[in-house]
Amino acid sequence: MLHGSRFLFPVPPIAAIPSAGTGLEASWRRCQREYGLDPAAPVLPSVLSGAELRQCCQRAGRVLHFAAPEMDLLHAALEPVGYTVMLADTEGVVLDHRTAHPIRRGCRRWHLWPGAIWHERHAGTNGIGTCLAEQRSVSVHRNQHWRSGLHGLAGVATPVYDASGVMAASLNASSFRPTPEGTMGALLASALLQAARQIERTCFMDRYRGHAIMLLGAAIGSSVPMVALDRGRHVVGATFAARMQMGIAPAQDVNLCLLNDTTAPDSATPLREAQAMAIQTALASARGKVAVAARMLGVSRSTLHRKIRDLAATQGSVS
After folding, report:
1. Contact at 8 Å (CB) between 47 and 53?
2. What confidence tens digit (pLDDT) does each residue in 157-175 have?
3. Cα–Cα distance between 110 and 116 in angstroms, integer?
4. Containing H/E element for 240?
5. Least C-beta-crowded within 10 Å: which of 1, 9, 108, 121?
């Protein structure tokens, strides 16, 4: 008993909080200190009515639509190892799932099912809820769940971003019959990342259909750094990863010239780094031909030559 506080049940001692190696210690502290959740309470997530679930699906919009084929592919790969695939909105509500017939009854019993609310504030540490709370990929295996009633589960989840760089959903793979040692974690995480990136790509390409799309380097977590360029080669759209590179907030309107001469000369600025990546990408696509790369970027050949020299002098990253 923790005297002089709002806790009226036994609280796990600090030693019971996962070590830093699990990456879940912050979630357990939130469950203990912020949410006041009883870890021993036999509570499963609440489930919405059919009408409430339909409203949530309508609000999800195109992300739910574009996630469907990726969920099909993901489930085809994970079905042999007994995992179900779910997509939840930012409130933790499961919107859609893919489940093999032999485990449907078990998934219903464990609330691995559309309409279930896996928000961390109510369900405690879990794949979907903690992914949403921390906006990152997480893996929660058996007794890493805050609630002891969920210790039979294992789940891995990763964020899904929409075309404006906003986290729109959590893509999850869960099992109520996981291996004791959690050997599937790395494989599941990799598969989920690939699927989440493809959902984001599809959303972005659909939103900016008819625009030139440029890739700004390798993926960052579950997001791919892409920008959409209008006919004047101004950036008018950017994914979450691209916004992080350019220092632009999610959902913020974008309308800038990627090679703007007013960009600060400091090589450490996010936009400066994005410029370097855009030039490298254009040169690679143009097979080193500066004139062709300049047309792709919407600048003159002399401007591109100057930018290459400037970036090489400040960063040494463009030759």
Report:
1. no
2. 999 999 999 999 999 999 9
3. 10
4. helix 240-246
5. 1
